[in-house]
Automatic annotation (TrEMBL):
One Pfam family per UniProt: Beta-prop_BBS7
Organism the protein comes from: Halcyon senegalensis
Record InterPro entries: BBS7_GAE_dom, Beta-prop_BBS7
Domain BBS7 GAE residue range list: 133-190
Name of the protein: BBS7 protein
Amino acid sequence: DSFDILGDGVKELLVGRDDGMLEIYNFESADDPVLRYDHALSESIASIQGGCVGKDGYDEILASTYSGWLTGLTTEPVHREGGSGEELKLSQEMQSKISSLRNELEHLQIKVLQEREKYQQSSQSSTALSSVPAFSVNDKFTLNKDDASYSLILEVQTAIDNVLVQSDVPIDLLDVDKNSAVVSFSSCDSE
């Protein structure tokens, strides 16, 4: 997307990448764009948009990720500084908003506990049926021409416990900074 998030009268380029990087590029001169800000998300970004969403006068960037999470970055200051000995007083509106959010959170926690108990009871009954949930896998296998390697990227809307890579030919696995996996090697019986 293109949006004037910096408020300088010139639109910046908002980029959401497959590797989860959200980047803001500024066009300060006629040459190449300059990276002004970046933020790493834990999964690939499916869509990105700039605009005023949450509060008038403060622009935001919204990004939706592969699994459906919506992440927002705002220009609204989140910290207020007070003088020495000055107490920070919350407005009545802010106090009621915090109270409302706490009540909603408690209600959701109770609902989750009820649903867990309901699931436990139904799974232990003699008529219970078990099925593997259907989910889609977002996979990419791309060639990196700089070091003649391939990158395998797997995304699923649930936690990935194990990935098994089996090959008929010897392969070298390279570690990357964003990798959170623990690699273990085992030889395969050729028969």
